[in-house]
Amino acid sequence: MKKFPLLLFLLISLLVVTACSKLNGQDVTAPDNSGNSGEQSPLDKADTDAGGEIKDKDSDNDGVEELDDPNGKVKDPAMLDYLLPDSSKAHYEGTGNEYAELDVQVYHPYEEFVMIYENNGGSMIRKLYKVEKDRILTLEEKHVDVQENAPPVAEIKKMEVTGVYLQKPFEKGATFGKWTVVETDATVETPYKKFEHAIVIEEKGDTYTNRKYFVEGFGEVKREALMTVEGQEDLLVTSSMESVTKP
């Protein structure tokens, strides 16, 4: 019975399913988002209040309500610095599990939205984020077979917020969702380089601890998943940035 939580954790954390894609920086069919780059998404009347400002549906119940610019622009683009730039590619060395090795490609199809394809050799996941002044919201994490164009902005705007990927203030002890900021000036060793001034967030459960390391200008440079099962050796799975190509 003790092996079941470990197997379930790996299945959920590493999202292992079969997909037709390759590792080690080899491209799959890249989406053509060139025509969408920098496009501002118009507002729908149903989403606006009397003052013309769009309000997010706070479905993550984090108690934070932000206002977007009516023109679809991010009021303060600083949060974009915690995601890689448009058309960036990154490779992550994996340890502890065969699916910890990652290839990542990043696209910015619209002004305030970022789309990331993450390939672990067994599955490919498309992630969609909305960038606001003080936080990055998760809209979608979906298994796909190949890369494809971003959905139309009208379709993205109808998506429910499923969580918060990263949120200010970057102060030790600050929380959002299940995550807590545990360090704000950490040094992180990766195969790519040693990073300074990293922000570390942590999610803890009875038998697991997950951590993510963010660096301004590079985004998520490392992630860790530590699983503790009574009577067994602790299992640590890590994905660490090994190479990155920016446009």
Structural write-up:
The protein has one domain: Beta Barrel (YmcC-like fold). The N terminus is likely disordered. By secondary structure, the protein is mainly beta. A hairpin with a 2-residue loop joins β7 and β8. It contains two helices and twelve strands. It is 7% helix and 40% strand.
In short:
The chain has 247 residues and is mainly beta. Helix content is 7%, strand content 40%. The longest helix is centred in the first third of the chain and has 12 residues, at 3-14.
Name some characteristics of this structure.
2 helices, 12-stranded antiparallel β-sheet, disordered N terminus, globular, mainly beta, YmcC-like fold, 247 residues
Summarize the topology.
Elements: H1 3-14, E1 89-95, E2 102-110, E3 113-119, E4 124-131, E5 135-144, H2 153-157, E6 163-167, E7 175-176, E8 179-189, E9 194-204, E10 208-215, E11 219-227, E12 235-245
CATH class: Mainly Beta
The CATH topology name reads YmcC-like fold
For the largest sheet, list the strands in their spatial order.
6-5-4-3-2-1-12-11-10-9-8-7
**Overall number of structural domains:** 1
**N-to-C SSE series?**
HEEEEEHEEEEEEE
What about the largest sheet? Answer: 12 strands, antiparallel
Beta-strand percent range: 35-45%
Structural class of the helices, strands and pairings?
A: mainly beta
* Name of the CATH architecture: Beta Barrel
Q: Count up the helices.
A: 2
In terms of per-residue confidence, which ranges show pLDDT below 50 for 5 or more consecutive residues?
1-30, 34-72
Q: Report helical residue fraction.
A: under 10%
Radius of gyration: 18 Å
